[in-house]
Amino acid sequence: MPAHATNYITDYESVPAGSVAQVLGFNGAAGDILERLVINVTTSGATSEVSVIDGSSPIKNVILPANTPVGSYSIYVGARSRLGGWKVSAGAGSSVFAVGSFR
Length: 103
Fold this sequence. Notes:
Elements: E1 11-15, E2 22-23, E3 33-41, E4 50-54, E5 61-64, E6 71-80, E7 86-90, E8 94-101
Antiparallel strand pairs: 1-8, 2-7, 3-6, 3-8, 4-5, 4-7
């Protein structure tokens, strides 16, 4: 885990299993910071995939692939959005706790 100092107040948001492109924050905005994703995989198999999209970008970034074993995973992201609010999708076998600074 990287050593770093967070110089902003963090928010958190829960993304339930089966969510598609849930915006983090009230509306989300360019400049939002996605610090970390804590992912809980309850069902292994093709339904465990978790992905993140930067605003209106057509590029989907797979954070946790399908067929990931059951368990909890803490993934440091440390990124600022450029194209709008962060959007998180969670497969039916995964739920996500997103930490960062969201508008």
